[in-house]
Amino acid sequence: MAKACTAIRHAQLGGWRVNGPVRSLLAGCLFLACGLMTVQGAPPVSKMLEYRPRQEVNITTPPGTDAANYTVELVKGTGKASGWVLKDSQGKMVRRFFSSTGGAVDTYSYYKDGVEVYRELVTAGSRTPDQFRWLNNNGSRWGVDEDHNGTIDNWKVISPEEVSQEALRALATRDLARFQALLMTDEDIRTLGLPTDLADAIRARRKTIKTKFEAAITKLTKLTEKATWLHLETAAPQCIPADQVSSRVDLVRHARATVLFESGGSNDWFQVGPLYLVGAAWKMIDAPTPGAAAIEERVPGSPGGGGDTLDLGSNPKLKDAIDKLSALDKRQVPPSGAPAVKHHLERADLLEQIVGLVKAQERDPWIRQVADSLSSAVQSSGSNENTGATRLGSLEKQLIQHMAGSNLTAYVSFRRMQAEYSNKLATAPGPKFAEVQKEWQDKLTTFVKAYPKAEDTADAMLQLGMVCEFLGKDVEAKNWYQTLAKTFPDKPQAAKGQGAARRLGLEGQPMALAGPLLQNPGTAFDINQMSNKIVIVYYWASWNGQVASDFGKLKSILNDSGRSVELLCVNLDSSAEEAKAFVTKNSAPGTHLYHPGGLESRLATQYGILVLPSVFIVGRDGKCVNKSGQISTLDDDIKKLLKK
Question: What is the pTM of this model?
Answer without folding.
Answer: 0.58
